[in-house]
Each structure stands twice: as structure tokens, then as C-alpha cells.
């Protein structure tokens, strides 16, 4: 069983930066893709970014491209989301997620249905 624990959220002003972390435990974490999603109040959860097991391929939603960077440290079983130039629209609960299946180029990691394990979420609030 994979367990995911996020940290690093908080309240910041627009234009500031935050780094979220997701500590993962489980037997196959190192061979899986990982992703970040977010859910704003009153809205559906949406995809933010994903990364392949080696960290050599990263994928982003258009809304965060150029401002957010996803990375991972497999020695620490930890995934990160560096968020720069934050905007009030980035306010949301941020979740890290991991699939059960090993990484594959045929899997669309933008889709929630392809993830099996979820963290409890960390709140990010950006004030204007």
C-alpha cells in the first residue's frame, strides 16, 4: 500500500513562491509516475503536473506552465512542486497522487482515473 503525505502549503501574497512536498512510502513508488492535482472551492479537482519515475519527463497544465516545476528525489521518495509567481487563481487544496500501475507512455497522467493513491491535501491560499 502506498501512502502519500503532502506538506508546504500556506498563505502567501500574489507573486510569491511556495514549494510543496509529497513524501511517499510503499514498495513500488520509485517505478511509478507521480502527479499533482488541485481543487479550488466549488470547483472540480483539476490536473496540475506529472512526472515520470526517473524525473526526466515532466508535464504541466497550461494554467501553470512556466510558473510551476515538478520534480522528485527518488532517494528520499519525495515529490516536489515548486510554485512561482503565484496568483489568487492558484488558491486550492493541492493533492499529490500516484498510480498503482508501472509507468507507461500509453497512460494519460492528466486523468484522475489513472491514479490510485492520494494524499490528504495541503491548502494553498494566495491573496491579492
Q: If helices are DSSP runs of H or I spanning 4 or more residues, what is the number of helices? A: 0
Radius of gyration: 14 Å
Secondary structure category: mainly beta
Let me know the number of strands. Answer: 11
Percentage beta strand: over 45%
The percent range for helix content is: under 10%
Low-confidence stretches: none
Largest sheet: 7 strands, mixed
Helix and strand pattern:
EEEEEEEEEEE
Mean pLDDT: 95
Shape: globular
Distance between the termini: 40 Å
Question: Your description of this structure?
Answer:
The chain is an all-beta fold and 128 residues long. The protein is built from no helices and eleven strands. It has strands at residues 3-7, 10-13, 18-25, 34-39, 46-51, 58-60, 68-73, 78-83, 92-98, 117-118, 122-127. The strands form two sheets. Strands 2, 4, 5, 6, 9, 10 and 11 form a seven-stranded mixed sheet that branches. Strands 1-3-8-7 form a four-stranded antiparallel sheet, with no helix packed on it. Strand 5 and strand 6 form a beta hairpin. The chain is globular, with a radius of gyration of 14 Å. The chain starts with a strand and ends with a strand. The mean pLDDT is 95.
Amino acid at each position: 500500500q502506498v501512502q502519500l503525505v503532502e506538506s508546504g502549503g500556506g498563505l502567501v501574497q500574489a507573486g510569491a513562491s511556495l514549494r510543496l512536498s509529497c513524501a511517499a512510502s510503499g514498495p513500488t513508488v520509485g517505478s511509478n509516475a507521480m502527479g499533482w492535482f488541485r481543487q479550488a472551492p466549488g470547483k472540480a479537482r483539476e490536473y496540475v503536473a506529472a512526472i515520470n519515475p526517473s524525473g526526466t519527463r515532466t508535464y504541466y497544465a497550461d494554467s501553470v506552465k512556466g510558473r510551476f516545476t515538478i520534480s522528485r528525489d527518488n532517494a528520499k521518495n519525495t515529490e516536489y512542486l515548486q510554485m512561482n509567481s503565484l496568483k489568487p487563481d492558484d488558491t486550492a487544496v493541492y493533492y499529490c497522487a500516484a498510480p498503482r500501475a508501472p509507468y507507461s507512455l500509453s497512460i494519460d497522467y492528466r486523468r484522475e482515473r489513472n491514479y490510485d493513491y492520494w494524499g490528504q491535501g495541503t491548502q494553498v491560499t494566495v491573496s491579492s
